[in-house]
Amino acid sequence: MGCSLTEGVGCYDYSINTENTIYWNLPKSKYLVTKIRFHKLGWPNRVGKKLGYDKVINLGSGGSSNSAHLKLFVDKILPEIDTLRSEYDINIIWMMTEPSRFSFYTDERIMYYSPSNTSPSGNSFAAQYIKEMPELEIGPLREQIFLMRTAEQMFKNLRVNFLFTSWVSSFIKLYKFVKTPHFLSPSPYYINLPYSKKNISKICGHPNESGYEIIANEIVNKIKEFHPHLDTGLSRDRIEWIWKGHRDYTM
User: Fold this and answer.
1) How far apart are CA 250 and CA 112, in angstroms?
2) Which of 8, 97, 107, 206 is most exposed, with the fewest beta carbons within 10 Å of its own?
3) Within 10 Å of residue 132's Cβ, how many Cβ atoms?
4) Which of 138, 166, 158, 152 lies closest to 66 in space, CA to CA?
5) Could you tell me the pTM of the whole model?
6) C-alpha distances in Å from residue 79, one per residue of 31, 106, 154, 174, 204
7) Phi-psi region of 205 (alpha: psi -120 to 50; beta: other; left: phi over 0)
8) Most distant CA pair in the chain: distance in Å?
């Protein structure tokens, strides 16, 4: 579960992306090929291989909020959780995102908003959100705490393993308010993104393949150190995987 950093955005194939154009501006054929490459080469599949897992379901969705992550889980995974649980032991890794982002349903899809990235002349809905908030830290962090506590109870009831982490520095403040053994690391910690030139995309600033390899190794090392029961002790060169982060909504 996560945002663009879980979807794998940044793993461009520069042989087809010769215009150096960000992915949503690509022609449809190149867009689809690029998105598949993102999903294939991001950190979730890398972590799955390194831990010897059978299958990865990637719910990462670019621009999404923490509330959208949970919506995607409820929409895409919850209806089939009994079938999945009958076939697999399930481990959820939730890489939470910037907490001021929010989401809501329309009749067709889940809408994403990122107020922290909104200028006064930008999206009017997100701009109004900023206007109504006295600040963009405490309120969103309280929302994040609510989502974590809600998810923790749900995951426990579903009898699945789960871990919380984030790439956002404000995440370390949650350790003061959320007491859980399900943090990726028991001490205040968040994943520092690898921002050296060789590890980021020259197009959008997300990690590239080597950047996601660094992130995957960091996650795996924390699991081996603090949650060894989630490590099979094996590794795989290939893994079954599927991306389910599409936000179109159908009843």
Assistant:
1) 17
2) 107
3) 9
4) 166
5) 0.94
6) 29, 20, 13, 30, 34
7) left
8) 52
Least confident segment among 52-61, 101-110, 111-120, 195-204: 111-120
User: Alpha helices, DSSP H only, in the chain?
Assistant: 4-7, 28-41, 43-51, 66-72, 81-87, 124-132, 138-158, 209-226
Structure tokens at 218: 């960091």
Rounded average pLDDT over 89-106: 95
* Sequence letter at residue 251: M
Q: Indicate the SS3 state at residue 239.
A: coil
Confidence of residue 251 (pLDDT cuts 50, 70, 90): low
C-alpha count within 13 angstroms, C-beta hemisphere, residue 51: 29
d(CA 115, CA 123): 9
CB 171 within 8 A of CB 100: no
How far CA 193 is from CA of 114, 116, 190, in Å, comes to: 19, 19, 9
pLDDT exceeds cutoff 90 at 250: no
The two tokens of residue 90 are 């399930």
User: For residue 183, what is the DSSP state?
Assistant: B
* Structural tokens at position 223: 């699991």
* pLDDT tens-digit readout, 165-197: 999 999 999 999 999 999 999 999 999 999 899
Give the other-Cβ count within 10 Å of 76's Cβ. 16
Q: Judge residue 135's burial from the number of C-beta atoms within 10 Å of its C-beta, 0-12 exposed, 13-18 middle, 19 or more buried.
A: exposed
Q: What's CA 121's distance to the chain center, in Å?
A: 28
Quote the CA–CA distance of 131 and 40 in Å, as a whole number.
Answer: 39
